[in-house]
Write a structure and sequence with these properties.
The chain has 636 residues and is of the alpha/beta class. 50% of the residues lie in helices and 14% in strands. Strands 9, 10, 11, 12, 13, 14, 15, 16, 17 and 18 form a ten-stranded mixed beta sheet that branches. Strands 4-5-6-1-7-8 form a six-stranded mixed beta sheet, with helices on both faces. Strands 2-3 form a two-stranded antiparallel ribbon. The radius of gyration is 42 Å and the shape is rod-shaped.
């Protein structure tokens, strides 16, 4: 059976009274104050304010009444430590959406009234305990409340500060403000004109309301809102003020924990920057391949055996050369080169002799068997130039030409006597270094062997690389299979530019998808990190959230504040990521000798992705913050 915190409470408080509710700890004093201040709701009974029944009010109406009719001072001051005294005192006015100029005037008067005007710019964390409690009173006074609720306002103060707070409460009451104080301090209770004793949830001594004679001395309340006026949506100007204050609060929260915020921005920067880089690299690679394809489109065709074609025997290298001559005799053919890609797993190229105990990484480049015509067609530059002739005339002995990247990786700066590598356990002299790969970038990271020294290459599906006159690739694509085998032209496949374009599209898509997936994973991790961080922040800011709710901030506004924090972090990371992504694309393209291609939409994609994931990361913390119970959080 649930325990009743309050029972049979029949109480009336008149306008202008100074009432002290006293009783032992756990008697229900704070629960009564929470109900009176609309921080909590009674499970049974009726509570009316100037005849308006609270149970019939929507939550927005209760928030609206708290922000305009009530002021709160709690035992804990709930001062926001990283904000100035002026910003703290203006919190209730910010909730109301008061204009900045009017806000400054009200805050100045409130701080002057409690003797803190000289501490206007001091951060809350640098104030003493007594100053913080007086600042809490100034925060309540700034909104010109009709009723002030004070829950143990002197509980943490010394005698001097206690007397100061009592004097402030009396002075406020003399202006016509109704003051309701929860206390167990007899000095504070003695200052009240009326005392109500509560014990075990019941009114033990229900005093009568103050008589008209006792309240008639109060000054009239000029310009204060009527709590029974019809609730209406805020005008546009006040909504803009509220929105700007939420943005400012989000910025203030982030700057107060700058280290954590910067780490979150860095996480979002990596994700959005990778996204921008993925788009830029994909576009740049597409342009680069398109350029190479365009070069080959006019004068290059590649032919090879289809899977159904008959392969020559290992010794039939002469038949392969015969097929080459058939292609060379076709009209429109300028030159024909041979290229065979050998399996590195079979030939195992190494820098040093195998089985000597020297550990080497597997070769990651290409191992090619070609003739000199292939390198001529590719417009490759070999040093020394005489090395080309050795590919075709090495007297049965294998020789190697190294691509420039391969030479650097193997530690062979130049060709010459004594420079050698090992292919399939056989020593192979290095007779040349490829200084420029020409039209075939793959050659830069390749080991190039003479095809005549490897007759077995004829069975590895060699490729005929055919240089043609401009405009001849398309007609030759139809003629070459017939020239090689008129009875079975289907045994040969010819790759035209259309095939290469299809390949280009596939490669670029694969590259873009790979980097995009990595980028989205980084963004997801950043989102998770930000969500965790902001959720922990919600827990540490429970007191501030409860205070804002007590002052009339709506649940939506509380959630919106955290949404703005996520948006600002994500937007900052997105902007930084856009810049880093562009810089990364430029650096990579310059290093590769590419022309960088990066449309403005890709940069904005990164920024938008950062902002969107930032908002997404803040959703759950925002919901958790908006659902906080102010009555419970104030006590925590």
């Amino acid at each position: 059976m649930p325990t009743a915190a309050l029972q049979d409470v029949n109480l009336e408080i008149c306008e202008g009274e100074f009432v002290a509710i006293i009783g032992p700890s756990g008697s229900g004093k704070s629960t009564l104050l929470n109900i009176l201040g609309l921080l909590d709701r009674a499970s049974e009974g009726t509570y009316s304010i100037n005849g308006a029944v609270v149970s019939l009010m929507a939550e927005k109406q209760r928030d609206w009444l708290r922000s305009r009719m009530f002021g709160f001072v709690f035992q804990a001051s709930h001062v926001i430590l990283d904000e100035s005294s002026a910003r703290n005192a203006a919190l209730g006015l910010r909730v109301q959406g008061v204009r900045h100029l009017d806000r400054e005037l009200e805050v100045t008067q409130a701080l002057l009234r409690v003797g803190l005007l000289h501490r206007t710019s001091v951060l809350g964390k640098n104030l003493s305990g007594g100053e913080r409690q007086r600042l809490a009173l100034a925060r309540a006074l700034a909104t010109k409340p009709r009723i002030l609720f004070a829950d143990e306002p002197t509980g943490n103060l010394d005698s001097v500060n206690t007397q100061s707070v009592i004097a402030d409460l009396k002075a406020l009451n003399r202006t016509g403000v109704t003051v309701v104080v929860i206390t167990h301090d007899p000095i504070v209770a003695a200052a009240a004109a009326r005392r109500i004793v509560i014990d075990d949830g019941r009114l033990a001594k229900p005093d009568a309301p103050g008589s008209p004679a006792s309240t008639a001395v109060h000054e009239p309340m000029v310009g204060r809102p009527d709590p029974t006026e019809v609730f209406s949506p805020a005008p546009l100007g006040r909504r803009l003020n509220l929105l700007m204050d939420d943005v400012y609060d989000a910025l203030a929260s982030l700057t107060s924990r700058a280290g954590k915020a910067l780490l979150l921005i860095l996480a979002f920067m990596l994700g959005s920057g990778g996204l921008v880089a993925s788009v830029g690299l994909s576009q740049s690679a597409s342009a680069q391949v398109s350029e190479r394809v365009a070069e080959a489109a006019l004068d290059e065709v590649q032919a090879s055996r289809s899977p159904s074609g008959v392969q020559p025997t290992n010794a039939d290298i002469a038949a392969l050369r015969g097929q080459k001559r058939k292609i060379e005799n076709l009209h429109g053919v300028v030159a024909v080169g041979l290229r065979v890609e050998l399996a590195t797993s079979e030939f195992r190229p190494t820098r040093f002799q195998p089985n000597r105990g020297i550990q080497e990484d597997d070769f990651a480049g290409s191992l090619l068997a070609v003739d000199s015509t292939f390198l001529d067609i590719s417009q490759a530059v070999v040093e020394p130039a005489s090395a080309l002739s050795l590919l075709d005339n090495s007297f049965g002995k294998p020789v190697a030409i190294l691509g420039q990247d391969t030479a650097v990786r193997l530690g062979i700066p130049s060709a010459g006597p004594g420079q050698k590598i090992w292919i399939g356990g056989q020593s192979v002299p290095v007779v040349g270094i490829l200084r420029q790969a020409g039209r075939n970038p793959v050659l830069a990271d390749s080991i190039i062997l003479g095809i005549s020294a490897y007759p077995s290459a004829a069975s590895d599906n060699p490729v005929f690389v055919i240089r043609t006159l401009p405009g001849f690739p398309a007609p030759l694509a139809d003629v070459i299979p017939l020239a090689l085998d008129a009875a079975h032209p289907e045994h040969f496949t010819v790759n035209t530019v259309a095939d290469l374009r299809s390949l280009r599209k596939g490669v670029n898509n694969d590259l873009g998808v790979l980097i995009s997936v990595i980028s989205w994973v980084l963004l997801a991790l950043a989102c998770l990190s930000a969500a965790t961080s902001m959720y922990l922040t919600v827990q540490t800011r429970r007191s501030e959230i409860a205070l804002r709710r007590a002052l009339g901030t709506s649940r939506f506004s509380i959630g919106r504040m955290f949404i703005f924090e996520g948006l600002l972090v994500g937007l900052g990371g997105g902007l930084a990521g856009g810049a880093v992504g562009v810089l990364g694309v430029l650096t990579f393209c310059l290093g590769q000798g590419w022309t960088p291609v990066l449309g403005p939409e890709s940069v904005w994609t990164g920024v938008a992705a950062g902002a969107a994931t930032g908002v997404l990361s803040a959703l759950y913390p925002a919901i958790a913050a908006s659902k906080a119970d102010p009555a419970q959080a104030i006590r925590a």
